[in-house]
Design brief:
- Helix content is 9%, strand content 60%.
- With 430 residues, the chain is mainly beta.
- It starts with a strand and ends with a helix.
Length: 430
């Protein structure tokens, strides 16, 4: 018996647990038994003749999980017993929704429904009402809707949705664009280039401009420059540069690189950030995942640096909780003006899942954000609009009024007209 706050749950029966870690970091777990009864909230669920197999590949970030199950479940909520199985194993990455696989559920009369995972945001239900092998109905839905937690935006959730969207956009941009910035002369990759290193080299320690260090290793084809295929890892420890702090590794493979005589360069490539932590002002984000980025730097004043980054799957953590991004992108420019004034303009799009919010939320910039560097928890963009759309069509438009204040326009029914407007501060959203 388990008592959590005021809710009591019970389990009665027997099962066998087998754990296999011989192929570490891949770990397998099998749970099987003849009968196991669970009780909670006045309902009883009975598993019979069940076997659940779970394989976790810890060498990937996030972890890749493969699930195969079979058995029979009886519950009053189901109105009887049904058989379940996975004809195609179900795959999950980290805490995201399943992205591939099939679950087949069969009733006593032979009727069945096959749940087909098309991708992390799309599911098809194939319904065979009489068990004759002919699909009678196809239903397109999402995992969130099947779980009863499809995303929605209303007056009570608008501030929370805005908080998550603002930090997802800011975190993804700041962490992924940091990879391109390392090719500046004072950056980790820029310093190694100036050392005329070539070939495959062991870790070289480089000092960060304002404290801390980076250990850089990898392969460079030609000394004094970079070329396509050069691959490096920079491991940062308390690395400080102006108003930012880096801790953790960046792995980067160069796709193209050009160095000009006027202190300019253009670099592009692909990389991974196995959980790099970047702190700017009072904001701290940890980013994990694969990305592609390009970074066009001009280090005179006044000058502009152009950047973009994209990722199919990325994780951003702040407040010790993970947010999962899909098809995320950010692009824009950094303007270095006189008197050390730095203005960042960025355009963002993608979708995310976050703690405390059901389902997936899409976001896109209607007007690029404009903000001063470095940011903190009281100063946000002084211009820009970001639109967030929930799965049920409801929307939230985050409108920057100035660098202190922001307006949230909530469209409950998705008809294009705001139903509620909430004025708050950037400090409340970060």
């Amino acid at each position: 018996e388990i008592i959590d706050d005021m809710e009591t749950s019970t389990a009665d029966g027997g099962f066998t647990l087998t754990l296999d870690a011989l192929d570490w970091p891949t770990v397998s777990q099998t749970i099987e038994g003849a009968e196991l009864v669970f009780g909670a909230a006045g309902d009883t669920i009975t598993l019979m003749d069940f076997r659940h197999f779970l394989q976790v590949d810890g060498s990937m970030t996030p972890e890749a999980v493969l699930v195969t199950v079979e058995g029979r479940v009886d519950s009053s909520g189901l109105g009887g017993a049904v058989d379940y199985a996975t004809p195609v194993p179900v795959r999950v990455s980290g805490d995201a929704d399943p992205d591939t696989g099939e679950i087949l559920i069969t009733g006593n009369d032979g009727s069945n429904v096959r749940i087909v995972f098309n991708d992390p945001t799309s599911i098809t239900l194939e319904v065979d009402e009489n068990g004759d092998g002919v699909i009678d109905e196809y239903i397109d839905t999402t995992w969130a809707e099947l779980q009863g937690n499809a995303s929605t935006i209303n007056s009570s959730t608008a501030t929370l949705v805005a908080h998550e969207a603002v930090n997802v956009v800011t975190g993804f941009g700041s962490v992924t664009v940091a990879a391109g910035a390392q090719f500046e002369d004072v950056g980790a990759f820029g310093q190694v280039m100036l050392m005329d290193v070539s070939g495959t080299f062991d870790p070289i320690e480089v000092a960060c401009p304002y404290g801390g260090n980076a250990m850089v290793s990898g392969t460079i084809a030609s000394a004094g420059t970079y070329s396509a295929g050069d691959a490096m890892v920079a491991a940062f420890t308390n690395c400080r540069f102006l108003g930012e702090l880096l801790d953790g590794p960046i792995e980067f493979t160069v796709a193209s690189y050009e160095q000009g005589s006027d202190e300019t360069y253009l670099v592009s490539g692909s990389g991974t950030e196995p959980c790099l932590r970047r702190t700017t002002g009072d904001l701290s984000y940890t980013g994990c995942g694969d990305f592609e980025t390009n970074y066009d730097g001009r280090f005179t004043s006044p000058s502009f640096v152009y950047f973009s980054a994209t990722s199919a799957d990325f994780t951003i953590a702040f407040d010790d909780m993970d947010r999962y991004l899909s098809n995320a992108s950010v692009s824009g420019e950094i303007e270095f003006g006189p008197d050390a004034i730095v203005v960042i303009r960025r355009t963002s799009s993608g979708s995310f899942r976050a703690p405390g919010l059901g389902g997936q939320y899409a976001y896109e910039s209607l007007i690029p954000d404009s903000l001063l560097f470095p940011g903190n928890t009281t100063i946000g963009p002084f211009n820009g609009e970001l639109k967030v759309t929930a799965g049920d069509g409801s929307t939230l438009t985050i409108v920057a009024l100035d660098n202190q204040n922001v307006r949230l326009d909530v469209d409950h029914d998705g008809d294009g007209s705001p139903d509620t407007s909430i004025t708050t501060t950037w400090a409340e959203l970060y």
